[in-house]
């Protein structure tokens, strides 16, 4: 399912390129392939003969760049870009990235995917020393730290700054003469490097953006790496050796595009395997299998294949639903008005349906989809979730900050089944998830972060620890009642 | 595939409702479900206590109604609406429908899906008598004919006017006290009636719009019918008995949404059957089957099931591609830049792929998709088209007016295979198409218009006959050379 | 004072040119000089190699043509344009002029300043014969009448049509090969012809527009004339000989720009003479004379000069007041908040002030200005109006349709003085007005229409007669009470 | 004349209010009266229950606040606002004021009229210590200096910061609980305090804004003062005692509105006296006197009165000229096309005209206006300038930074007369200017800054000294050649 429906949001997609004509257009095209990672803001900074120019605004990429000239005006040979879903940082233009910084003698622009866990304490400390922040975004901290660093050169300053910030982050930094890319020590977020036919390097969140711009995949950026690209080529460095891969498992489950590969694993195929394992763990006595479009279709195919059941188009999603300002009233909604999803009566009528969804956050949409199928005549609906129950918040870049928002943190599986009015309900186990993704690494959980499922965070929580403890205590108290 | 890619465009979707609060919002929601039928203009006319108010503009529905108030301002209990792809009538606001007409003592608004074949001669005749046309659209003729009719009441005037116009048309007419819906004598375009829980009647192009607004399907409007809905209920009348069903087969093949039913036949299921029959008629020695998203997925599933091959996600379509002002340059395009479709390497690499598409018009995209799959590593690509070769123009509402635009009118199947660089190419036969749709009627071709495939038009061509003859002669001459 | 403040509005300014490069830009510049004649809509139709293209919209010229390209896109050698204040015809885009008409084989566009008195009955008659009107504007009638005329050529058709319409009108008509200009038989509205250095002819409402475009004044169009301009030059014809000049005296009093000449009389100079005669008829015991900016300054100078008193800047008008969306609340207004006019304390404090205004319509602003001066410390305010009391409606193109709106129709001069809280109040006599303007003609009232002052309309009122009788009866009854 | 025509621009108008409902609307109205001080950007910051919200944008106030809601959305009891003409700081939204600053625990917004002379060196110094600037505007320096101050409370921090910056400045600072207003030690820019009927204090650039909002004038802010307004009332303090009044004489000559009083002197009356003294110093053998609208009208009246000549309306300015995107082409301009000014032929024809202008900067418009009058038939044109020749740049807030731009710095009076094609040319002397303004003070030049006329700057030039020396050397060298 798509972000407007599921209340689970990735904060960002990032894209950068150095050394190719029409860099802003290429960045637009790359970001267009990453639009699923953020729909609330977008921006591009171009390097025009050493001068940085930024255009950014609210909404989809097509809202911000709303005429053919909008990109053509950003002439230059290098660029970075960003699509954004807001987590930290409220709804101000100043928070839309790339964040541009103009000094008397130089310029910077920053784009960031992730969430810093010690942003609040760094900001407080620096403001006490006279610093002025442009934005309310955690991203800006890195710029202040770079400028305050006493290291002798920019490479050293950037490294020093990266060692101070904590959490999940993939950063792009562009200056008049170079492009940096940096990944946090756990590699929570994906970041890949590719190369255009003309030799120019591209760095971006997902391989689907490499494909979109015609770039060849070169390598996945590793935890703790600092990449520098300039007119002399590419340099790979480590700003820290204290690293351990724990990439966000939700990238495989829901966020990433099915055609992307992450650390060599194709996302669609991983999802198909999740679906297949789900069929083994949570079989159902049914006639057909259908998925919630679009993100659950791969898992549904895998389930159908493994279960030996027909894979069907039981639900249709309106292709134009990315933007509408007009919503049904509550009254209309109750009368069955639905602008985004429709059940295909001719397919589901009289059938026992396995409905595969990728994950459940608040559970509000699950209930609506089950109803949609039953109203269309489904004989029974067996809801199968191709991931484990989401029970803990994430502090590394996914927009769930309180367990209280998560239905699985508050209810048993049987309670959820009743709430959704499903005939049966089953989730994938954490072990099967790890096996389905199957990263080639010896890191714990085979390199996956599964903290939202088991609560075992791979790093300290810093500024969030108190809030987390309070949240857990409340949850515990609620369950006692 | 979607209209931006395939140069094959339906002109319109229409929606009307009488006797329910918030009629404009409901019409918006209905049109939103019909947006696939026209993306270049949209409008709504509301009846506010007997006064008609119209808002219309260029672009998607969300462009025209670009704020929550845009619909809220159209307060009233009845409304008609229109989404438009332009055929006849150039790019002027005056041509966006509904067309509003204000007389000293009354008002009308018209919305129309289809194409009139005698519009030019009617207009010339009326202008010679002093008539002034607002628009360059063929739709307006009906209004003039109604006003010039000497029949004693409006019912009679509308019927008289409907008997003068020729071609394919589904019309909605709203006045201060009623809503008319009329279908041409061949029923070239779909038109259905439904009913809301509160009893109000809805009339619209496809059943998917009924589902979207929570209305129950009542009946398909029949060729030659004139429906009247007012505060006393619904009246079904015939303005002519000289009728014979020949609904556009492209509605089943490509235009209509998979969740719609037309004359009782579910579109997705019909497409699945086309795919299955295609597998029998045009088998291929392959490993996987994949469809061109979104319109060919049903046929691809049917092909895979019938062929006993795995159905796979070999191509991914960018969900945000409905609107972008920025395009790759020709240079970038040649470097493999693609903003709308991506091949999933992890799926197709090394595989012999059956690629199912619903139809081929100009053939330009077919070539690009075959290349996309081969670049992603497909061992071979067997292109299968779930409809017969398009060889003749349409004059009843599809935007193909010259055979010279159609690749299949100009090339043999083997020539096309070479042009597309496919390893093999096969089309569905006309007979199988008719069997797959399988309408319950004794009309010729089981009620389907297949003139684009066989050139046998079910009506005279009137104003288009000369142009058609010239076009065919040119084609013939070209082949002789 | 300016139209936003005084509720007295001219409907239109018109401008046309034939045979010069960049005709739309010239028309824009001409209309810009006529903007004071209408601020609610504007449009330009250009003739591009025989094809007519129209751009029109709501608001000021600068709102409609809101980018440098807006005019550049209208490429062509001939054009007509219009600025509009709405009288007849409600607030619809369709009513913004020029009104474009597209026939199968030809095109027209019409621009009109004035008001037809038999528009309603013509429309009713034509609609009964099947005619469809685009707009609710009275302007459109002429087009229908031209098309319905049986005269053998266009010249004859236009003349026939002009003889059917009644009231005040200056019309411009552009076609693929000519430009017509026509004036009503009374010449209610001004219309002049000029010539550019390159020989091209210009026709427009006021000579200030000729000056703005660098054209030399040639002649005033006479009542009943039909001018034709085409590639062969200019032709002057009469469509009727039953004419008698009675140009609207409000053009001299208030509407026209001070730098314009009408029938050889400079408007500023005429106003100065009105002021001078007012000083003789209505002297005042005072220290200084000040005018209400901007339209009353000429009369105030004349008054000061004749009275031998210093002319002073006692009031200042905000230069930016043409457009603001933000208004003071009623509460703020009562606290003395004023966004448009300020009194200059340093000038008026302790002084006995003669305040000259050009005319009084509803009287609401007069009261406010007297208060403004007194709050600024004026010892006394002697209000002098450089025109007679407005007591009757106008049906020839000024937006006063009911005597009940006119304070002077409802109150004696002493009552008005008390309402305005002025220390004295005096108006100019009708005789002095006629003498001050002093047109060189033997027509009654020396060619001026003074019907708003004396109720003697120079033509029948046609469709308005009943309404006028009712209005006068009400007024009479109100006075009886 | 108005700023679009004369290349002489004030940077700003500022307005602040504390403790009244609907503070943003009042600020809008106040800024509307100050719009003549800056047309390129505008903004308002409102204090909504202690939270600051800012809306700002490019263009006129009516462009930024382009709907009734635009101000209504800024709900609060205190506000500051700014209209801007850019000097220092390029064309970026970040430079539009008020500049908002958000700290973790507090907020500020700054609005500034003037120009700092040591901004560049302060910025460099602070950036070297790690500071990051939001804008390229000199205004921002104050915020950094306040935050870096070690003073124990905000009052002290603000004072410390004000003592570091140099140049001409009137600052408004709003926080959650107070409003500061500060004036530079020379009082280069005007700043006044008034009080609303409800007791709330207003501080703004000119008294015309007090009149506009219905506030009573209380006092002129004195050089070196720091005013604090909060819920307990108003506090007047000095941040330095090293002060000496030298207010910009161009405020009296050209910038300020005629209805404003500065240090007790009415601007219109001062201009009238300049005109009268000019008549004595530079008499002319002429028939009439006319001024260039609007800023020279007062001086023209004074000249006419003193010379005993009739004051006439020889030039008319288009009231709508504040905004147009369409300009005459160079070709049209040469044909006499003029969109902003017209000569009144009926007035000037055959007359010997004294043309009074307030000042001459580049001289381009003077030449055009003389030509306009002669083309309209003036027998001779005697150009009289109601101020001394502008020969030196200004560094305190007027946009002339190079003497090379000034025609009077490069040419003798006779040379200028020839360039303008005037029959005679005369300027006011510096002594008469000082006498005409006649401020009640013992400061040098009676408290006026006349450095643009005599080159004697009342303060060191700091960062501008080098540039000034280079400019003067070039000028000297050019004259030697």
Automatic annotation (TrEMBL), chains A, B, C, D:
The gene is purF. NCBIfam families: purF. Pathway: Purine metabolism; IMP biosynthesis via de novo pathway; N(1)-(5-phospho-D-ribosyl)glycinamide from 5-phospho-alpha-D-ribose 1-diphosphate: step 1/2. This is Amidophosphoribosyltransferase. Residues 12-232 form the Glutamine amidotransferase type-2 domain. Its EC number is 2.4.2.14. The active site is at 12 (nucleophile). HAMAP family: PurF. PANTHER family: AMIDOPHOSPHORIBOSYLTRANSFERASE (PTHR11907). SUPFAM superfamilies: N-terminal nucleophile aminohydrolases (Ntn hydrolases), PRTase-like. Catalyzes the formation of phosphoribosylamine from phosphoribosylpyrophosphate (PRPP) and glutamine. Mg(2+) binds at residues 295, 357-358. Keywords: Glutamine amidotransferase, Glycosyltransferase, Magnesium, Metal-binding, Purine biosynthesis, Transferase. GO terms for molecular function: amidophosphoribosyltransferase activity; magnesium ion binding.
């Amino acid at each position: 399912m798509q972000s407007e429906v599921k209340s689970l949001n990735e904060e960002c997609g990032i894209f950068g390129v150095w050394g190719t004509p029409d860099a802003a257009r290429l960045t637009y095209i790359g970001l267009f392939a990453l639009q699923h990672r953020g729909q609330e803001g977008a921006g591009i900074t171009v390097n025009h003969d050493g001068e940085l120019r930024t255009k950014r605004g609210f909404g989809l990429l097509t809202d911000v760049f709303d005429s053919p000239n909008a990109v053509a005006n950003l002439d230059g040979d290098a660029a970075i870009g960003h699509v954004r879903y807001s987590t930290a940082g409220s709804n101000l233009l100043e928070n839309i990235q790339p964040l541009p910084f103009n000094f008397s003698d130089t310029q910077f622009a920053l784009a960031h995917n992730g969430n810093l866990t010690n942003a609040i304490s760094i900001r407080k400390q620096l403001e006490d020393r006279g610093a002025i922040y442009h934005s309310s975004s955690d991203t800006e901290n890195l710029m202040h730290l770079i400028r305050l660093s006493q290291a002798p050169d920019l490479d050293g300053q950037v490294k020093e700054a990266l060692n101070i910030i904590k959490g999940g982050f993939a950063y792009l930094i562009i200056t008049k003469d170079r492009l940096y890319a940096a990944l946090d020590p756990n590699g929570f977020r994906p970041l890949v490097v590719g190369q255009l036919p003309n030799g120019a390097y591209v760095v971006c969140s997902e391989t689907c953006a490499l494909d979109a711009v015609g770039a060849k995949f070169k390598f996945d950026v590793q935890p703790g790496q600092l990449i520098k690209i300039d007119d002399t080529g590419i340099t790979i460095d480590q700003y820290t050796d204290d690293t351990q891969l724990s990439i966000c498992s939700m990238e495989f489950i829901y966020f990433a595009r099915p055609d992307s590969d992450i650390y060599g694993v194709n996302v669609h195929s991983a999802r198909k395997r999740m679906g297949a394992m789900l069929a083994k763990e949570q079989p159902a006595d049914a006639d057909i299998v259908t998925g919630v479009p679009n993100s659950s279709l791969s898992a549904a195919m895998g389930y159908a294949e493994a279960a030996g059941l027909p894979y069907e188009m039981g639900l249709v999603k309106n292709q134009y639903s990315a933007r509408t300002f007009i919503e049904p009233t509550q009254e209309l909604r109750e009368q069955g008005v639905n602008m985004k999803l429709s059940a295909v009566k001719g397919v589901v009528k009289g059938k026992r349906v396995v409905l595969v969804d990728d994950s459940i956050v608040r559970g509000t949409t699950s209930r609506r989809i089950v109803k949609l199928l039953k109203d269309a005549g489904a004989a029974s609906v067996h809801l199968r979730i191709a991931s484990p129950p989401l029970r803990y918040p994430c502090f590394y870049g996914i927009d769930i900050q309180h367990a209280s928002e998560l239905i699985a943190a508050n209810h048993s599986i049987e309670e959820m089944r009743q709430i959704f009015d499903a005939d049966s309900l089953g989730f994938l186990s954490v072990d099967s998830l790890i096996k389905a993704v199957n990263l080639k690494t010896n890191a714990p959980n085979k390199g996956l972060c599964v903290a939202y499922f088991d609560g075992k965070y791979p790093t300290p929580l810093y500024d969030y620890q108190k809030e987390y403890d309070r949240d857990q205590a409340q949850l515990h108290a609620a369950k006692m009642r």
